[in-house]
Design a protein that fits this description.
The chain has 4 helices and 8 strands, in the order βαββββαββαβα. Strands 1, 2, 3, 4, 5, 6, 7 and 8 form an 8-stranded antiparallel sheet that branches. β4 and β5 form a beta hairpin. The longest helix has 21 residues. The chain is globular and about 50 Å long.
Length: about 180
């Protein structure tokens, strides 16, 4: 049976920190808006304390998570144990977006590897932590990180990445505001 926790304990923290992939889900306020579910990796997750987590948001074709958080703050992050005991951990909370031009960026950035494609840090204040069995989750073996995103960003360079973000990250698919740094 699953358990609900008021905060992350050492056991949950160890499980989270051992994972190579996690999933982020958000939704706009409007029932007509599109829900978003995104896989994340590249060692981009950090436990800041027992009630606060963060992840480095890297450049991508959409900006749904950022837009949804700016609108309503709701977020859930899910980890699945793919190689050990069958376990799922969900972190429910209120998220906020910290962009490179924000003062808080300099305190958060050292928590993560340095990536040219970094566009924000998503900080989540946890409201609910829950685990459940992962009996239906298959066993998978981690063989390594993909290099395509890092290679793409390095090939583009700073100026072309900025242009890409202006074109693709200013608004969500539902028209909600995205990155502040790229909006006119």
């Amino acid at each position: 049976m699953g358990k609900v926790y008021s905060e992350l304990n050492d056991q949950l923290r160890k499980l989270i920190e051992s994972q190579h992939v996690f999933f982020v889900a958000t939704a706009p306020t409007s029932p007509e808006g599109h829900l978003n579910l995104s896989p994340k990796g590249l060692d981009s997750f950090a436990v800041l304390d027992a009630k606060t987590v963060a992840y480095l948001d890297l450049v991508g074709s959409g900006i749904e998570t950022v837009s949804h958080l700016r609108e309503n703050g709701r977020i859930v992050i899910m980890f699945c144990e793919f190689t050990g005991a069958p376990k799922i951990v969900r972190l429910y909370g209120r998220g906020r977006v910290v962009e490179p031009q924000d003062a808080e960026w300099h305190a958060l950035a050292p928590e993560f590897p340095e990536y040219l494609g970094a566009r924000s840090v998503i900080v989540v204040e946890l409201e609910r932590v829950a685990d459940s069995c992962g009996w239906g989750v298959p066993n998978y073996e981690y063989v390594g990180e993909r290099s395509q995103l890092v290679d793409y960003c390095e090939q583009k360079g700073t100026e072309k990445l900025a242009e890409y973000k202006r074109q693709n990250n200013a608004a969500s698919i539902d028209g909600l505001p995205g990155l502040r740094a790229v909006t006119p």
